Amino acid sequence: MLIDVNLLPKKEPKNAVFLIVAILLLAVLAAAGAFFYWSVQKAESEMNQLTQELKQTRALEAAEQQKLADAEPVQEVEELQKTVEWAKQYPLKTVLLLQNMAKLLPERGFLMNFSYSEDTTVSITVQFDTSEDAAYYLKRLSDAPFVANVQLKSVAAANQGDNGSADSSPEEAADAAEGKKIAPRYLAQYELRINKEALKDEKENQP
């Protein structure tokens, strides 16, 4: 029987571990490259989308600004028209109203204060020599065609020193300067509602 004996050293097999590591490394690099490429593409896509949105936003903003610019002249015209209409329908002709109220005052009646609001409500303060004059003036205002309604809010004695007050009439100031005794004065407050049409008619009837 023959026996085959090989005395040569056996060859070492290829390092399988090195091969596996190399393959894994290449796979990781390939995956990283693919991910990087995908990220770059996604970023570019988002950038393009944002750019388009920015362009659209700027276009809309420009359109709105143009609308506002076009609307401003229209608004100015409308405001001017409203002002003109308001002026035409202005609640009171102040000078004419004062003239008519002054005509109704008694001889020793003095208009001390006057104010009104846009709803044709007028508040006045009048100085009289007597409280009866306040009632007399109330009656004359009630009968006046340009007064729709009138109320006497209060009547009070005016505070006056020996030398008169800052609200005294010229006659009272002269009397005070001469040392004459000044009788008590009364301040009456009225609230009136004005009839604009009647006041207008009265102006037209004036010569």
From TrEMBL:
Residues 40-67 form a coiled coil. It comes from the Bacteria. Keywords: Coiled coil, Membrane, Transmembrane, Transmembrane helix. The keyword GTP-binding does not apply. Pfam families: PilN. InterPro entries: Extracell_DNA_Util/SecSys_Comp, PilN. This is PilN domain-containing protein. The lineage of its organism: Bacteria, Bacillati, Bacillota, Bacilli, Bacillales.
